[in-house]
Write a structure and sequence with these properties.
globular, 229 residues, 10 helices, mainly alpha, 82% helix
Length: 229
């Protein structure tokens, strides 16, 4: 169903997006630092549920419409690549602020006696907030609407292909977010021992997003045939 080239490109794209700290990852790290590993992993799960809403919406409705309207799909792919690039630039620009915010969260947690002694909100409040962050994450919306359809082979069942790739992405995403959460719990001392470590990670991730967005933009323009008109 999928060509080897398409699968390689998909896994490379998915790994890049998952590895890079975005709104969801920053929220997960903050929850882990404030409330501990358990609540961090709860955040990971319900954040993923929020992502899944976009996947289902595209697979069972929006995607079919887009598949029948190649011009609209081409425009969305180009717009999505441009917006992804914008997110990457913003990540680089605001890396210092993001690091400062996480450092403050870490310091507040230590002042309160650490995550194990901090006041714990009800788990369903954590779940609700994590779901909303996942659902409103622009990087995820752009991925499912404008990026993932690029790896669906034309001529085959759009919904089945999209769901397979989407589920693979969600599994990879959960593993990646779980690693971020556990790393925040285990390596918090190393991360915040020296200023610039976390901002360096965020900045490098932003540059990777910009590179990925450039590649996707070029591919979208080539597939649309704009250069041949």
């Amino acid at each position: 169903m999928f060509s080897s080239a398409a699968l390689i490109a998909f896994f490379a794209t998915a790994l890049t997006l998952i590895a890079i700290p975005g709104p969801s990852v920053m929220f997960i790290i903050g929850r882990t630092l404030s409330l501990g590993r358990k609540y961090g992993l709860i955040t990971v799960f319900f954040n993923s549920v929020g992502h899944t809403m976009w996947m289902l919406a595209v697979a069972f409705g929006l995607g079919q419409i887009l598949a029948s309207m190649p011009i609209v799909l081409a425009v969305l792919k180009i717009a999505g690549a441009l917006y992804l690039g914008y997110l990457g630039v913003q990540s680089v620009r605001h890396r210092k602020q993001d690091e400062a915010s996480m450092a403050k969260t870490n310091a507040d947690s230590i002042a309160e006696g650490g995550p194990s002694k901090a006041a714990k909100p009800a788990w369903f409040k954590i779940a609700r907030e994590a779901f909303l962050v996942g659902f409103s994450n622009p990087k995820t919306a752009v991925f499912f609407i404008a990026v993932l359809p690029q790896f669906v082979e034309p001529g085959a069942n759009f919904t089945i292909q999209f769901l397979i790739l989407g589920l693979i992405f969600e599994i990879m995403g959960n593993i990646g977010d779980g690693i971020w959460s556990l790393s925040a719990a285990w390596a918090r001392t190393w991360i915040f021992a020296r200023s610039g470590r976390l901002s360096g990670i965020i900045g490098a991730g932003g540059l990777m997003i910009v590179s990925l967005a450039t590649y996707l933009l070029v591919m979208a323009v080539i597939e649309s045939g704009i250069l041949h008109k």
